[in-house]
Design brief:
Blueprint lengths: L1 H9 L6 H7 L4 H13 L12 H7 L4 H24 L5 H13 L7 H14 L4 H9 L2 H6 L13 H10 L8 H10 L3 E3 L5 E3 L9 E3 L2 E3 L3 H10 L1 H15 L6 H13 L4 H9 L17 H12 L1 E3 L4 H9 L24 H13 L5 E2 L12 E2 L4 E3 L2 H7 L4 H12 L8 H7 L5 H13 L8
Antiparallel strand pairs: 1-2, 3-4, 5-8, 6-7
Length: 457
């Protein structure tokens, strides 16, 4: 039971009540097989914005401000669609979880709807496939090309932004390359650009076809060959494996395990799916020190709440507001290094909102919620006083009501928490204003999901 709960929080976003009832006694092998089978069947995403480009294009240059405003609304809609997809038991939890990981790894701020949509579909298509193909697809992705200024990378005036981040953040890691390697890599990616329609184009006249020396090798390298040379370096396998271990297993790295995983990853020609299957089926993944050891990111936290409580937001864009208030907004990382994660998720401006969010949703009470201040822009965060959302507790009440209060509370704790429950039934009873069973269950759910232990997975 504990292993299943751990698996679905790390390979997904927790379990809905129905999933918990059906799967809590499954063997791990069966659960892992289902996760990967569903992942193989996941279809590309078609966002609502696909219906709007003609309207935007009709605005023309005279209405650039209005066009930017419409694009922001489209990206916000895509943001909401994605987090609701993460929370939907009918979707592939593993694909969405892996996509969220790669979204942070290949961090890219997307301000244009079709670029954001296409990049996410690119990530989803390769999330459990070949890391080589994923890196190559990202290098050709118009959103990334524009974000890291590679459309300005031309043979007579190389721009090193993408080449630098390709090595420092996306593949081999800092300290394993030279400044000269960056310069030569930038030359190899000259001409990799995009057109006004947001499509990748290779501009032959802007490409440097001259000889380049990269990692001790000499040749007329292009960008694809640069990526291949980077993947030949075992440090790349180690860098990616270590990052995956810290995200999915534990931020405290077991060097022996990472060494073995890295070797497997390298020898498999960077097969992401094979690496993840090894992790999820290994005994050490379910060790006590790895369970409940990770602070949920704001997206994991919110997707889990929506999944477990059947939350329906009357104004879906309020989901974007909550993301901003908690410090993680999809399609809008703080910089190309992505979100730092870990203890950085918790500070004075986010802790109280995280602890009280479930209570706000269950009581629809007035709240004083403010987005985080934007220090670089010297802007104070915006305020919002109410979350308009409904929570469907009826399935939970029907499941838990027949149980005696101690058993009911224990069952809810096993489903909702990955760490030991510090509360007892007497505490819940002391919070009640009446004796109805549904009141006890609602109060218990609210208390459990307001605990610091619920912040962990």
């Amino acid at each position: 039971m504990e292993k299943i709960r751990h698996l679905y929080w790390r390979a997904g976003f927790g379990l809905s009540l129905e999933e918990w009832q059906n799967k809590r006694n499954w063997p791990i092998t069966k659960a892992v097989d289902e996760l990967f089978t569903n992942g193989q069947q996941a279809a590309p995403i078609t966002f609502a914005e696909a219906q709007m480009p003609e309207t935007i294009m009709d605005i023309g240059n005279s209405g650039k401000a209005l066009r930017r405003k419409l694009e922001r609304k489209i990206v916000a809609t895509q943001n909401v669609d994605w987090i609701q997809r993460m929370a939907d038991p009918k979707e592939s939890a593993l694909v969405e979880r892996m996509s969220l990981f790669w979204h942070g790894h290949f961090a890219c701020r997307s301000l244009i709807g079709n670029l954001a949509n296409n990049q996410l579909n690119t990530i989803r298509a390769h999330a459990l496939g070949s890391f080589r193909e994923l890196v190559l697809a990202i290098a050709r992705d118009p959103a990334m090309i524009r974000y890291l200024n590679n459309q300005q990378n031309k043979k007579n005036s190389p721009n090193e932004n993408f080449a630098r981040e390709l090595m420092e953040l996306f593949t081999i890691g800092r300290g394993n390359y030279s400044e000269q390697d960056i310069k030569e890599s930038a030359r190899a990616f000259t001409g990799w650009s995009s057109n006004l329609q947001g499509e990748y184009v290779f501009r032959m006249r802007q490409h440097d076809y001259g000889s380049k020396t990269f990692f001790g090798k000499k040749g007329n390298f292009n960008g694809e060959e640069i990526i291949d040379i980077l993947l030949e370096q075992k440090q790349t396998a180690d860098f990616i494996t270590r990052k995956i271990y810290r995200y999915f297993v534990n931020r405290q790295v077991d060097e022996d395990i990472v060494r073995e995983l890295s070797q497997q990853f390298y020898e498999s020609n960077y097969d992401i799916g094979q690496l993840m299957q090894t992790i999820f089926t290994s005994d050490w993944f379910y060790a006590a020190q790895n369970q409940g050891a990770k602070i949920k990111s704001p997206i994991e936290f919110m997707a889990g709440i929506i999944r477990q409580l059947n939350v329906n937001f009357e104004e879906p864009t309020s989901l974007v507001f909550v993301q901003k208030a908690l410090g993680q907004m999809l399609f809008n990382p703080p910089n190309v290094a992505g979100w730092p994660g870990g203890k950085n998720w918790i500070d004075n401006s986010t802790l109280m909102l995280r602890l009280n969010l479930t209570a706000y949703l269950l009581t629809t009470s007035e709240i004083n919620m403010r987005t985080k201040d934007e220090f670089e822009a010297q802007q104070r965060g915006k305020a919002q006083k109410k979350l308009k959302a409904t929570v469907d507790l009826l399935p939970i009440i029907r499941w838990a009501a027949p149980l005696a209060e101690p058993d009911c509370f224990e069952s809810l704790s096993q489903w909702l928490l990955t760490k030991p429950n510090p509360l007892d039934v007497d505490f819940i009873r002391s919070m009640l204003k009446d004796q109805r069973e549904e009141t006890f269950i609602q109060t218990a759910v609210m208390a459990l999901m307001s605990l610091p232990e619920y912040q962990m997975c």
